[in-house]
Amino acid sequence: MTSLLLRNVRPMAGANCDILVKNGKIAGLGRFEPEPGMAVEDGGGAIAIPGLIDAHTHLDKTTWGMPWHVNNRAAVLRGRIDFEREHRTEIGIDPHRQSMRHAIGLAAHGASHIRSHVDIDTTHGLSMVEGVWKTREKLAGIIDIEIVAFPQSGVMVMPGTVELLDEALRQGCEVLGGIDPCGIDRDPKGQLDALFALAVKHGRPIDIHLHEVGDLGAFTMELMFERIRANGMQGKVAISHAFALGMNDYLRVGRLIEELAALDVAILTTGAPSATVPSIMRLKEAGIRVGGGCDGIRDTWGPWGQPDMLDRAKVIGMKNGLRSDNDLAHLLSVVSQGGADVMRIEGYGIAEGCNADFTLLTGETLAHAVVDVAPRPLVVKGGRVVARQGKAVVDMP
Amino acid sequence: MTSLLLRNVRPMAGANCDILVKNGKIAGLGRFEPEPGMAVEDGGGAIAIPGLIDAHTHLDKTTWGMPWHVNNRAAVLRGRIDFEREHRTEIGIDPHRQSMRHAIGLAAHGASHIRSHVDIDTTHGLSMVEGVWKTREKLAGIIDIEIVAFPQSGVMVMPGTVELLDEALRQGCEVLGGIDPCGIDRDPKGQLDALFALAVKHGRPIDIHLHEVGDLGAFTMELMFERIRANGMQGKVAISHAFALGMNDYLRVGRLIEELAALDVAILTTGAPSATVPSIMRLKEAGIRVGGGCDGIRDTWGPWGQPDMLDRAKVIGMKNGLRSDNDLAHLLSVVSQGGADVMRIEGYGIAEGCNADFTLLTGETLAHAVVDVAPRPLVVKGGRVVARQGKAVVDMP
What we know:
Metallo-hydrolase_Enzymes (chains A, B), alpha/beta, 16 strands, Cytosine deaminase (chains A, B), TIM Barrel, homodimer
């Protein structure tokens, strides 16, 4: 079923109209009568926006739907990484089952696209990626999943990882990941040279986790800028978290942002409340592409999060101190259009000719909708209804 | 109905037992048979904790349940204060109706007690307090409400306010409020001298809003410490927000915390994600009484928040970077026992002889329960069931 007449909705909180879908695309916005045999839905006057996008998450590592994972371990990043790698199998975090739960949860809450980092390391090889690939196949038509080959345990510090990343890209991972070249790898030149060489070899974009704060993170960004220029990778690099952009040095941050804009580097934020985070309004002023993501939800790292991009928008919005309706409307665009900008999704939007991927939201205005975090009345993917009232049409395993 | 047999619960996530209630008090924890005519409830194995406590909120100013309030005004504190005072009546923010909605929402989500700051100013006099008093009467037996006479618009900068605060305390407001003696009043000596004189005159505690950050807030705290010593008000002062304690100066903050402990000053936090906030774990180590609060929810100041202390615990917990089960259990105590410590609530707790004020929580452990933010299965106040599955027994007006 890829044809649909969705009546009585307000695209982007504008005037009430119908959305006509044919062959999985939006055939028109206006007033229409159904063709024979066409599915018809009443949107009840709800707001319609393009599908929400979780542009930074970790489908392979959630414990969602599993028994509560008790965690009283020390709060050390390297310890979290090693504990997870060493114990994920015995804990029972099956990457296919868990990525199914996570992705179905996101779809149920209105998401149409996911960019997921998936762990690749010398203990598990590509098995996490294989689990998520299986999920991607099973959820085809429900939600699109893009996979970042992610060296969670480090690159240079874990010999053999470069070869695994090479193989993952060869097998079809869309994006190359990386992580804290200084903080985790202790060898920023080594990791960044290796990553950029792989990206160039496979013609793939880079999306690197950068938790490094202050001057350290700024230094790593500068090393990235040099390599983007040297390799002609303008427009093909994203930095996730980018905590250094939250440092309290207005001018220094301004110079970093100028470079991000000049090199068309995208930023992905999760609004981490306890960290220093980039200002989404300052990035907007500079014309930077910015998406949002849930990050890990309820995993061995920490208990917070849920598979819902409006819940995440609330976290990002509160952390950014957003209050005005105009800013809240922008917040909603970060977790929708912003993700599409980062992932370069073709045909994204609510207009004739766009993909028929959209979600309904309750609320009077876009600001009201993003603050309310109410169940999504209806979620449509490729013209097919995939969730109603917060419940997906497919069951979680 | 103040007698009740609540079967099959786990007090504080411990061993399964029954809670026997007689005359509004807990008569015992163990296994019991109902007496003739006694109400019996099955807790379904849920966790039971004492009632949640919203120890810092603003019942008189929410727009909850009203049409969405569009706000594109400048983000200036003085502007927010003045806009609200000048326009709240025309917007239709009736303090009685709105405080009913807010308080019933809190009760529906498991709260047994509220400390609400209520605006007192030279435009509206005591009319906001009168509206909330009416709510307190109507909700007697559902939720307890303590009122702080709160000079939202300033004290010295709004002549006539001291006299109104004096009258409010005379009429029975339990606590004297204050706000940013430097930032709002531009006269820290003036405001603090006036407040401490009123508090001494009426024998009432003080709970002051202190948004002042860094060295400015630290200065104001020092002025407060001097007056607490001079007036013998040890144990009778609370500081709400206390953003200065979130400044990035470990030793300076340590000296302030030593003084807080020495003078038994309580801290109330809302975990404001975009601000610098006190570390609840550091305050715990110092033995400081710490409660949590929702602050304003969906008002003319900003759109965020909802009447649910577990939702607020999530905000406080994420902002404080809490992840371990032990820390999450402490987080739950901040929004329950911590509020009772600050408000000096007698008979609070789950033990024989305590008030029969408790809420059931779903989840395997205390940490799981505070992270899950699921509907509360059952809420009991004074032995009476006041909410089931997130729905109060009284309707919102």
